[in-house]
Write a structure and sequence with these properties.
Rossmann fold, Helicase, Ruva Protein, domain 3, elongated
Length: 275
């Protein structure tokens, strides 16, 4: 999620359970595995675990699915000078950067199999070796992993190592989908709008009429909070600056509808005339 919020929002039973699990896990050194669909707030759980852990180092994050497989190893473990063409000096990887703090491996389910073996060795031995190096370097960090994948199914398919799964699945925290905690939507909307206003993107705070709020509650939100944030920002652009109405709520799969496009064009023309 973007700069919308740095904490988990919601008073639903599901979110109260999540916060309770974080409070239990945070002070320990136990590896935490955060499970949940895309956009449910897995990175926010990692931030909360780190913030409540008392560790003095930084939270260092890396998205295992966003970095090409041939670069991920050096990003994680660093490399020695001369390890490969272009390695002009020794570089610390994320493991060393997270020393004394927390390392967050997002989307670990997408990590290539060959690299999983090296990660398992690092977790078990609490030592790493930089790419091109032969020296064991001790590591002292808290590990938090996250994935939206069904890792058990990936193990059966030969895509994920069972021994690594057992190492990271020490303290699992499962995040509910937004549809499973729709009661939290009004509070999430208020929080998102406040964050947007704090960034200077809003002069005033438009109100949501009741029918608009009902539209938010009826939609299943397959993209979860991340999709909700996109729709909120879109509605803030399209509304008249005072009230957000149902026609201003255009979800992602409606963007190419004729009616939605006409409303977008009409509102942009009005804003251009008044601006």
């Amino acid at each position: 999620m973007s700069a919308a919020k740095n904490e988990l929002v919601g008073q639903s039973a599901a979110m109260r359970d999540v916060r309770r699990l974080i409070e239990i896990a945070a002070p320990a050194k136990t590896t935490v595995l955060v499970l949940g669909d895309t956009g449910t707030g897995k990175e926010l759980v990692a931030r909360s675990v780190h913030a409540q852990s008392g560790r003095k180092g930084e939270l260092v994050s890396i998205n295992c699915s966003a970095i090409p497989a041939d670069l991920l190893e050096s990003e994680l473990f660093g490399y020695e000078k001369g390890a490969f063409t272009g390695a002009e000096k020794t570089r610390h990887g994320r493991f060393e950067m997270a020393s004394g703090g927390t390392l967050f491996l997002d989307e670990i389910g997408d990590m290539p199999l060959p690299l999983q073996a090296k990660l398992l060795r690092a977790i078990e031995s609490k030592h790493i070796q930089r790419v091109g190096g032969g020296k064991d370097i001790p590591i002292d960090l808290r590990l938090v992993c996250a994935t939206h994948q069904n890792i058990e199914a990936d193990i059966d398919a030969g895509k994920f190592r069972a021994d690594l799964f057992y190492r990271i699945n020490v303290f699992p925290i499962k995040l509910p989908t937004l549809a499973e905690r729709s009661v939290d939507i009004p509070q999430i909307i208020a929080t998102l709008c406040s964050a947007i206003k704090a960034q200077g993107e809003l002069l005033g705070m438009p109100e949501f009429d009741d029918s608009a709020l009902q539209e938010f509650s009826r939609y299943p939100w397959p993209g979860n909070v991340r999709e909700l944030e996109n729709v909120i920002q879109r509605a803030l652009v399209l509304c008249d600056g005072k009230v957000i109405r149902p026609e201003d709520i255009i979800i992602d799969n409606q963007l190419h509808d004729t009616g939605a496009q006409a409303h977008i064009q009409n509102m942009l023309e009005k804003q251009a005339m008044t601006g």
